[in-house]
Amino acid sequence: MATVAFNPPKAEKISKLQSAVAGLNQISENEKAGFINLVARYLSGEAQYIEWNKIQTPTDEVVVPYDTLAPSPDDISETKNLLDKLVVLKLNGGLGTTMGCTGPKSVIEVRNGLTFLDLIVIQIESLNSKYGCNVPLLLMNSFNTHDDTLKIVEKYSTSNVEIHTFNQSQYPRLVVEDFLPLPCKGQTGKDGWYPPGHGDVFSALMNSGKLDALLAKGKEYVFVANSDNLGAVVDLKILNHLIENKNEYCMEVTPKTLADVKGGTLISYEGRVQLLEIAQVPDEHVSEFKSIEKFKIFNTNNLWVNLKAIKRLVEANELKMEIIPNPKEVDGIKVLQLETAAGAAIRFFDHAIGINVPRSRFLPVKATSDLLLVQSDLYTLSDGFVTRNIARSNPSNPTIELGPEFKKVGNFLTRFKAIPSIIELDSLKVTGDVWFGAGITLKGNVTIAAKPGEQLEIPEGVVLENKVINGPEDI
User: Fold this and answer.
1) Measuring CA to CA, which of 205, 413, 419, 454 is 20 to 30 A from 355?
2) Taking 60 as the threshold, does the pLDDT of residue 315 lie above it?
3) Which residues, including other chains, have CB under 8 Å from residue 381's CB and lie 6 or more apart?
4) Residue 4 — pLDDT band, cuts 50, 70, 90?
5) Other beta carbons less than 10 A from residue 434's beta carbon
6) 271's torsion region: left (phi>0), alpha (psi -120 to 50) or beta?
7) Do domains 4-361 and 368-474 have the same CATH topology?
8) Where are the domains of the chain?
9) Each residue of 130-154: b (16+ CB within 10 Å) or e?
10) What angle do CA 212, 213, 214 make, to 5 degrees?
11) Residue 340 gets which letter from DSSP?
């Protein structure tokens, strides 16, 4: 923040901000109001301080073990009735920039030439065909992905899935120095704006008119998940449980491994279930938070929410999720974007629960190392569902580290003539200018490091088991 001399009282700041925002004709009145509300909450410092000694470990009533759920109905007509109450919503606001792609991340090819979005559509198509139901697919885009997504969904026009798109809010970035919107300083392009995190999904559903339209069709629950999580598929046991027990909100959590220590976790706090994120943890307790002994589960961001409850809480302006300040820099100007997360809404819903699901429901593809896993023989593909190969005895996936030469999808694909067999692999680390032939098998712990300035080719058909390779002589 700027020094105190430049820090007028909150009311004056908000008043100046309101005047400035009123002139931004690129966004709706709802967006303007939502933005001012968010900034006012941020300036009032209503941060949620967690009193560490009040944190309790949730009981099995609050975080229900998946294997205690009743089986879903056998009867096809009962299953149809269940599914006819459901809507699937994928968070589709992200660009594939970290993997070197320019469009929506959901159109990266995952396997057999099929994209994330193809797989999602195929999954819902097979449900709709099998049970004669109508589960629609909603895509929440950001202004970054909206135009591209509209073009892409045209190819599904003949499928038996109703696809609806809507946009999350578009908010102006705030200039840190004077707390005025960046677009008012002449930055009118995309860099002046940001999408305020997936916590915006509830108000965006309402403001777009989609929520009322879904309620009018008799829909009761929405299953919200990241479009890049291949494990986030419709689960009838979970849906059945929520309807039977009138749970307004359910967060799928799964056991933490050492790779997930920063993920948010569920706690019981003052009689309610709540998401605890690392940002809320006092410094002296961070190592305790990261321990997998005390906090054994983390949030997969697979969420099931009752639509009527969303309407009630949005209308009453009661969804005041913790604000995540995200500092950025645009053309040398320090800016702030204020965001919220959908998981943090759990404490506002009645009878909210977590369900401790199998790890197979959390299979995100965040980097090319994840892409290597899902394109390999470690997984099989059927009806759009990516399933782990039963031939692997180790319950954990191999750990894979690929050097910067593999970071972009295009480079990754050209460096592998074919993805190696990794059923018996424990770990793989690749650095330098390495190229893979076809028919390679990797087992145990394999490290491949090309010497600086040298190209290293792994020949076709080799089996590498517990090896460290720095040159052709080591193969």
Assistant:
1) 205
2) yes
3) 111, 112, 114, 119, 387
4) very low
5) 20
6) left
7) no
8) 4-361, 368-474
9) ebebbbbbbbbbbbbbbebbeebbe
10) 90
11) -
Q: Is the pTM of this model over 0.85?
A: yes
CA 326 to mean position of chain CA atoms: 17
Q: Which residues pair with 428 in a beta bridge?
A: 400, 446
Q: Which backbone phi and psi does 23 adopt, to 5 degrees?
A: -90, 0
Q: Which residue type is seen at 394? A: N
In whole angstroms, give the CA distance from residue 431 to residue 470.
10
Dihedral angle of Cα 318, 321, 326, 331, to the nearest 10 degrees: -20
* Contact predicate 86/219, CB 8 Å: yes
Angle, in degrees to the nearest 10, between helices 76-83 and 116-131: 130
Q: Which CATH superfamily is domain 368-474 in?
A: Hexapeptide repeat proteins (2.160.10.10)
One-letter identity of residue 270: E
The angle subtended at Cα 80 by Cα 87 and Cα 236, nearest 5°, is 65
Q: Which of 41-45, 74-78, 351-355, 385-389 has the lowest mean pLDDT?
A: 41-45
3-state secondary structure 46-67: CCCCCCHHHEECCCCCCEEEHH
Place of tokens 């809010």: 169
Q: What's the token pair of residue 404?
A: 């910067």
Q: Which residue in the block uniquely carries the two structure tokens 């039963």?
A: 390
Per-residue burial over 267-282, b = 16 or more CB atoms within 10 Å of its CB, e = otherwise: bbbeeebbbbbeebbe
Q: What six digits make up the tokens of 461?
A: 């058909």
Least Cα distance to 141 among 74, 90, 87 occurs for: 90
Chain centroid to CA 242: how far?
A: 22
E strands, 73-226, in order: 86-91, 109-111, 114-115, 137-141, 163-167, 171-172, 174-175, 193-194, 221-226
CATH 3.90.550.10 fits 4-361, yes or no: yes
d(CA 272, CA 270): 6
Strand partners, 265: 276
Specify the 3-state DSSP secondary structure of 274. strand
pLDDT average, residue stretch 413-424 = 96
